[in-house]
Input
Amino acid sequence: MKIKLLKTLNKARLEKSQIALITNINDGLQTLIIDGEIADGEKSNSELLKKATAAVESDRSKIAIIGDKKYFIHVFNPPKRMIIVGAVHIAQSLVPMATIAGFDITIIDPRGAFATVERFPGVMLCDEWPDEAMPKLNPDHRTAIVTLTHDPKIDDPALIAALRTNAFYIGSLGSRKTHALRLQRLRQESLKDTDLERIHGPIGLNIGAISQAEIAISILGQITEVLHRSRKDNSA
Output
């Protein structure tokens, strides 16, 4: 790989861009595509660009054959992240499930007694208020944000901060009545209905979940569905 291409690739990865490095297996020439645009290297034809975009959206590197040429499309996507607000019992079930599904987890809870290493071993813990912590964590298009405290003093600021990001998923625990009251409060903070529509509430798929583990399954299932739906929408 040429030094210039490598520097561009590394810079794009630091910026958490969606990246595809295309290598022509026949002659070794390479093309770098960042956020759907050719950034460096050899020019790419429209069919190859379409295949590279599809590979990025599917989050899977692949071989592409166009005519008599073979290409390897190497996908470099930012890691999937999940920010959980509330170190509660449901979070204890959700964390291991989400970890298996490939998410890097951060838990935010200003209540020190809840967010402990004993309860969440190996998890990044943050004891700041969510509206202070969220900008530092810088959620991106590969981030899911989940609020679980049931406490408006914690969940509401977290949601307001989350809605200022381009997180692909935002969800909040609570009944339909609780969510309706939540939306009323958020409207008083000058949030528009188009913003509030991004919040999945009540959180999770409607699978009749009762136990904390079942609720965690429903949450992770909905996050997964939204993630894959956005990929389909972007590749349509």
